[in-house]
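Researcher: Good morning. I'm working through a list of sequences from a screen, and I'd like to move beyond sequence-only analysis. For each chain I'm collecting a predicted structure so we can compare shapes side by side. This is the next one on the list. No need for commentary yet; just the structure.
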Amino acid sequence: MTQVLRVDGSMRTAGSTTRTLTDRVIEKLAPARVVTRDLADGIPFVNEDWINANFTDPAERTDAQRAALAHSDALVAELKAADVLVIGLPIYNFGLPAAVKAWVDMIARARETFKYTETGPVGLLDGKRAIVVVASGGTAVDSEIDFATPYLRHALAFVGIHDVTVVSAARQMVDGEAALKSAEAEIGALAA
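Model: Good morning. Structure tokens for this chain:
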């Protein structure tokens, strides 16, 4: 059975377009085992303790350093276990929500999700698929003012996830009905 990791990036738990459309994507992927990570529940930010622990050889980490990385380790384990990653990504002020950036910071780990080589970094999560459900009020996806979608595509590729499909419900404040209809059609066209 397919393992799906659902990451909800909207801070709105009710009335969220990305949550509603992500529900539809999950239905499309059924049957699947779904693990949900709701970033509205909170996520730590990288701090000095985390950085020091992350750059310490795993065999030499103290108990305090292992504790500093525990949440990050859990997020990495969820991602490694998933076949498909489904991310609900609202665009806030032309970019991604701070919690989504914090999630990326927690999962982009040298020796865990990417490695350094003589020719540069190489992602270690090949073979996974990502579906990113994007919603915005006025920002067109992949426009010159969309700093969220290109960033997330790049971050996913950095860890080895190159098969990325974007479902767009953009510019809802311009024509909400058309934006939702377009997103529903894109979801309908997804291969299960």
